[in-house]
């Protein structure tokens, strides 16, 4: 897997990265997540499993790794693995996020798993926490799930603090997006300037065969020099055979047909659809097992073509429908 430039940041990334949302805590919303971690929910066991996953990703050529303060102990697990890697780990590019606080206390059935707060005080608390866990490996710091409704992009104090981190700490600044209005939020983010300079260096957004609505703005962000990361490539498992409530419908049978035609798996096909977009720098795998990861990486061998693109365009949902469905996925 070859490295490539990440927008105008000066960083390098690989076309597939590993996101740790499903690895840093015992509960997550991916379909079948509980089965993936069966017997590995204790902190020490999950840390070892995460290290095994990171080793597998490294051996497959992956060099971009993505965490967040709210992903349980993901930053700590990633940091301990990077220290074990020593000088070799310096070849990794690492991103993390601030703005959510993990509140589940390692309980899968917690009433509330994370609390969102984009205030200056949270940024000033979480930045040193991220730096402590990831050290000098931390290359990209992102607002976690920025939306227009939180008002974070209008908060001059927060924007100023991010600009200070960018210049004083030498770190790239990004934002991740969430919800049906991703494109509107990104359009506003591209307008944010501090002292006449564009603040944001990168954007992380959901784009997949079910939710492609932000495509035009993501192309605009790439054209503006931002690095572009795509998350939820497999729609939290909805674009895999685990989605037994939808995958056997006539609409979803198209996925199986095109996967068969291209001699690949459903998940690799969905990943290939993302990698094929010219504005994408990194497609994140959210795998929780090494077999899932290897299957995802097989997307690099898929010849995505116009036939697949045209056939699968009908899978796209209204953004509100997609995000309502996502919001009702159970933690497991």
UniProtKB/TrEMBL annotation:
Superkingdom of this protein's organism: Bacteria
Segment forming the signal sequence: none
Database matches in CDD domains: AKR_unchar
SUPFAM superfamilies for this protein: NAD(P)-linked oxidoreductase (SSF51430)
Record-linked InterPro entries: AKR2_Oxidoreductase, NAD(P)_OxRdtase_dom_sf, NADP_OxRdtase_dom
Residue intervals passing through the bilayer: none
Any matching Pfam family: Aldo_ket_red
NADP-dependent oxidoreductase domain residues: 47-307
Database matches in PANTHER family: D-THREO-ALDOSE 1-DEHYDROGENASE, NADP-DEPENDENT OXIDOREDUCTASE DOMAIN-CONTAINING PROTEIN
The protein's name: Aldo/keto reductase
Organism of derivation: Longibacter salinarum
């Amino acid at each position: 897997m070859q490295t490539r430039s990440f927008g105008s940041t000066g960083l390098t990334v690989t076309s597939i990265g590993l996101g740790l949302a499903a690895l840093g805590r015992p509960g997550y919303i991916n379909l079948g997540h509980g089965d993936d971690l069966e017997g590995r929910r204790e902190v020490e066991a999950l840390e070892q499993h995460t290290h095994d996953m990171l080793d597998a990703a490294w051996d497959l050529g992956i060099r971009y790794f993505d965490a967040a303060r709210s992903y349980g102990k993901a930053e700590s697990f990633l940091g301990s693995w990077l220290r074990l890697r020593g000088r070799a780990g310096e070849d990794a590019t690492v991103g993390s996020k601030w703005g959510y606080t993990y509140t589940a206390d390692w309980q899968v059935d917690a009433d509330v798993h994370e609390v969102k707060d984009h205030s200056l005080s949270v940024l000033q608390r979480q930045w040193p926490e991220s730096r402590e866990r990831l050290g000098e490996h931390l290359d990209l710091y992102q607002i976690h799930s920025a939306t227009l409704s939180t008002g974070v992009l209008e908060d001059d104090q927060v924007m100023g603090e991010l600009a200070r981190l960018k210049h004083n700490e030498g770190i790239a600044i990004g934002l991740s997006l969430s919800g049906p209005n991703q494109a509107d939020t990104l359009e506003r983010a591209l307008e944010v300037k501090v002292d006449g300079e564009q603040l944001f260096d990168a954007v992380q957004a959901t784009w997949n065969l079910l939710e492609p609505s932000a495509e035009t703005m993501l192309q605009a962000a790439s054209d503006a020099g931002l690095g572009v990361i795509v998350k939820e490539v497999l729609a939290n498992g909805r674009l895999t055979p685990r989605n037994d409530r939808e995958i056997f419908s006539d609409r979803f049978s198209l996925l199986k047909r095109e996967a068969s035609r291209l001699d690949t798996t459903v998940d690799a096909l969905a990943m290939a659809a993302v990698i094929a977009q010219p504005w994408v720098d990194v497609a994140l795998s959210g795998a929780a097992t090494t077999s899932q990861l290897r299957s995802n990486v097989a997307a690099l061998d898929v010849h995505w073509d116009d036939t697949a693109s045209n056939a699968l365009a009908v899978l796209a949902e209204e953004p509100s429908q997609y995000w309502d469905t996502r919001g009702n996925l159970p933690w497991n």
